[in-house]
Description:
By secondary structure, the protein is an alpha/beta fold. The protein has one domain (4-191): Dihydrofolate Reductase, subunit A (3-Layer(aba) Sandwich), CATH 3.40.430.10. Helices cover 22% and strands 29% of the residues. The protein contains 5 helices and 10 strands, in the order ββααβαββαβαββββ. It has helices spanning 34-43, 50-56, 72-80, 113-122, 134-139, and strands at residues 4-10, 15-17, 65-71, 91-95, 106-109, 127-132, 146-151, 160-161, 172-179, 185-191. An 8-stranded mixed β-sheet has the order 5-4-3-6-1-7-10-9. It has a two-stranded antiparallel sheet with strand order 2-8. β3, α3 and β4 (91-95) form a beta-alpha-beta unit. It is globular, with a radius of gyration of 16 Å. The chain starts with a strand and ends with a strand. The mean pLDDT is 96.
Amino acid sequence: MRKLVYYVATTLDGYIAGPDGGDPSGADYFPLTPDVIQFIVDQYPETVPGPVRAAMGIVNPGKVFDTVLEGRASYEIGLAAGLTNAYPHLRHLVFSTKLESQDPAVEIVRDNAMERVRALKAEEGKDLWLVGGGKLAHSLLPEIDRLVLKQNRSVIGSGIPLFNGPFQSHMFQPVEETLLDSGVRVLTYDRA
């Protein structure tokens, strides 16, 4: 069975974006240092957006994910940059009750998110990448099998939390840790 993996950058205090909810990539609290870029290209090349893959000459189809899941706000960051499908090399699903279809290759999931994820997990294939955001991650928390957190050295005090919703208790256990030269710690946890 495929795993649902929440693979995301976070601050030490558990935020995945600033208070404005905009694209945090390359912000001073999420610097894209050469070692971080190399880690992503080596370990998760499929998570690099299509235009960046083309510019970098990345042709590796990826080893971990074949499907990306994201919430409306995360998807709209790509739309604001002119991308109706930032990950054309992956099966792409966006979870939103309000969003109209922007690209025929992107599936809009309007309801029954948990059922849709369970059906995806039961299919053959590579794992499912939950890219964000915090509200979607919280709503799918019972189905998340693995966390891969690129924990940066920053504290920002407020913003979009890793899990944005009411109290729920779920236990995960650490399975791997990689410390990059820049101080970014990649922490991998599996559901206990």
